[in-house]
Write a structure and sequence with these properties.
The chain is built from ten helices and 36 strands. By secondary structure, the protein is α+β, with helices and mostly antiparallel strands. The chain has three domains: 15-104; 106-133 and 152-215; 369-631, Rossmann fold, CATH 3.40.50. Helix 7 (522-528) packs antiparallel against helix 8. The longest helix is centred in the C-terminal third of the chain and has 19 residues, at 613-631.
Length: 633
């Protein structure tokens, strides 16, 4: 008896956005519940004195959604966002460490989206939409709220808060462009600002431009366009002057192949620094001297320093490491990481390691027995090196097989399974291992961790080689007497849901399948999903590509619905804008038409991820009951 229940999984807490002060002593972070009860997710800002070895302390006592902690340049004040006064409208607050007082700094009617304390102790840069006008108020009163595409679209604008007077000014820069990120030069100089043509997630990421903004003179310099989905700005000095870096998709890819871009401001020469590596950059972190880069490296994570001409590996970490933060000098880092059997906590130490754990977020899991987790390494049918994870049933060893095997495909596809604790609200390995299942977590081509070409190889070819990669891993586990070939299941969420739907249209070897928020028609997704052009790159075409058949028809699971004989559980959020509900309805109608056993569940008020507590509990219980019904007669 493991003691693992659905309530234990969803009633936990998680840590978000750790941030180190420049003095290296203080660290702030956000504590958030894993599930939501009610209309709001109530989160909390905490901080800890690392050098003092003291316990973490909560910065506030209010019930609110609190986020985005940022330290002042002198490490005396922790700024953060909170909606304690008006729920769902966050404002900027200041927590003074010396006397533990909290002060509201803004009353911006549209709310504050993000903020950046500047080197000047009297200034904070803000990102916020325009406040409602009298005309907007009249429209709201009169319900004159027809939405016209392109009109009155919200844009986040750069604004400056004067802490001495409390006034907020909006420099007349960037026109109507949407500001998405900003970073000040380490010496207190200008701000690098990343903008997009709009906030629309389909068009915006392909329209990025980079700017230099001098907050003293209120002047701006346009540095030109950036590659798609640019983010994670960082400055560093070099012999030829200042450099400005960012992460973005490597052209012409629109879905994968993230690289570090390095712009030398003196010469305006732009180059990619990581495109030929066998690992994938996920974060870029600024210090006073050189940028640090976090890489997805197979099942694990690598931290490196970006030099003027080279890349120096500093440390390697098991599993996933994320949300890297550092002191000004870069001598101390903090990040979120865990282990195979322990969830994520904040770890602190030198960039070269080792890192020590300074939080204990989920002590309730310490007494649980989990299934043994093992890394897998094997080769695809064409010889490509692949990896993944195997989680055995709790209390069992591989020699006691064969076991009923459930394969869970990750989302993305530009994501990966890292060698970390696999315990989540969505179909996860340890939840199923506790019920006696072996679980295979494959990393087929198209994901992170193995370089650009590995990631980009599925463009226009989803469901092809990546499906063969998954089958090869299943066959390996069958040959090792770990998996029972007569009791196989497959599951996944998002792109993993697509692969599950694809699988049952191409083989009858699975006795049950789960399609969570899955893609069944790539043309429809390109037309209606919030990331249309990215999905079009994966599917290979759109409905307006001319008279069909189209390339996306050949890689859409609905095209093969007449072949499906496997019982399918369909789970989907009613308000999903990433993969709209229509995808699930399409699969449901196709399965009903062909008289295929299936169950279709819609979760009201939910988006692409399921957030409400009762819905998360239902996902976990329904998933296990579904596989128990078909794999454990």
């Amino acid at each position: 008896m493991t003691g693992l229940t659905a309530e234990v999984i969803v009633d936990g807490r998680e840590l978000r956005t750790p941030v180190l002060a420049r003095n290296g002593r203080l660290l702030g972070y956000v504590v958030a519940p894993l599930s939501r009860v009610g209309d709001h997710l109530d989160t909390q800002v905490w901080f800890v004195d690392i050098d003092d070895g003291g316990a973490s302390r909560r910065a506030t006592a209010d019930t609110a959604t609190e986020s985005r902690p940022r330290w002042s340049a002198d490490s005396r004040v922790l700024f953060f966002l909170s909606d304690r006064t008006d729920r769902a409208t966050p404002q900027l607050y200041r927590f003074a460490v010396a006397d533990a007082t909290v002060t509201a700094l803004t009353t911006w009617r549209a709310g504050i989206i993000d903020h950046l304390p500047l080197a000047d102790p009297g200034l904070v840069a803000l990102l916020a939409e325009d406040e409602p006008t009298e005309e907007d108020d009249r429209r709201a009163r009169d319900r004159d709220d027809a939405i016209v595409a392109g009109e009155r679209e919200p844009h986040a604008r750069l604004r400056l808060l004067d802490l001495h007077t409390g006034s907020v000014t909006t420099p007349d820069v960037f026109g109507d462009r949407h500001v998405v990120d900003l970073r000040q030069r380490p010496d207190g100089g200008p701000l690098a600002v990343l903008t997009q043509a709009s906030a629309d997630s389909d068009h915006g990421p392909r329209s990025g431009r980079l700017h230099l903004f001098d907050h003293v003179t209120a002047t701006v310099e346009d540095l030109g366009p950036v590659a798609a989905d640019a983010r994670s700005l960082a400055w560093w000095p070099a012999e030829d002057g200042w450099h400005l870096g960012y992460l973005a998709l490597t052209p012409p890819a629109l879905h994968a192949g993230t690289a570090v871009f390095d712009l030398a401001l003196g010469s305006r020469v732009l180059r990619t620094r990581t495109a030929d590596l066998s690992m994938c950059p996920t974060e870029l972190c600024q210090t006073d001297a050189a940028a640090l880069v976090v890489f997805a490296d197979g099942l694990n994570t690598t931290v490196a320093r970006l030099g003027p001409t080279d890349l120096t590996i500093l440390s390697k970490h098991p599993g996933r490491l994320s949300d890297l933060t550092t002191t000004g000098t870069g001598g101390t880092i903090a990040a979120l990481t865990g282990s195979r059997y322990r969830p994520v906590d904040v770890h602190v130490g030198p960039p070269a390691g080792p890192l020590r754990k300074i939080t204990d977020t989920r002590p309730e899991l310490s007494g649980l027995t989990l299934g043994t987790q093992e890394p897998l390494a094997y080769r695809a049918t064409d010889g490509l090196a692949l990896d993944g994870l195997l989680v055995l049933p709790v209390g069992r060893t591989g020699s006691e097989g064969p076991f009923p095997l459930i394969t869970i495909v990750h989302g993305g596809p530009y994501d990966r399974y890292a060698d970390r604790c696999q315990l989540f609200w969505f179909p996860s390995a340890q939840w199923l291992a506790a019920a006696g299942y072996a679980v295979f977590l494959p990393n087929p081509r198209g994901g992170q961790g193995h370089g650009h070409q590995f990631a980009a190889s599925v463009a226009g070819r989803v469901g092809q080689e990546e499906w063969t990669d998954i089958q090869t891993g299943i066959d390996l586990l069958i040959s090792q007497d770990i998996a029972d070939p007569h009791r196989l299941g497959i599951a996944g969420w998002s792109h993993g849901g697509f692969m599950s739907a694809w699988a049952v249209g191409h083989t009858d070897r699975f006795r049950a399948a789960l399609v969570g928020a899955g893609v069944v028609d790539w043309g429809m997704l390109a037309a209606t999903g919030e990331n249309g052009q990215f999905e079009a790159a994966l599917g290979g075409s759109t409905g307006w590509s001319g008279v069909g058949p189209h390339r996306h028809d050949a890689v859409s699971p609905v095209s093969f619905a007449s072949h499906i004989r496997t019982p399918v559980l369909i789970l989907h959020g009613a308000e999903d804008t990433n993969v709209p509900l229509g995808q699930a309805v399409y699969l449901h109608r196709a399965l009903r038409h062909f008289d295929v056993e299936h169950e279709f569940v819609i979760y009201p008020r939910e988006g692409h991820s399921i957030r409400e507590r009762n819905h998360q509990l239902d996902v976990l219980r329904r998933t296990r009951a579904w596989f128990d019904r078909w794999l454990r007669p």
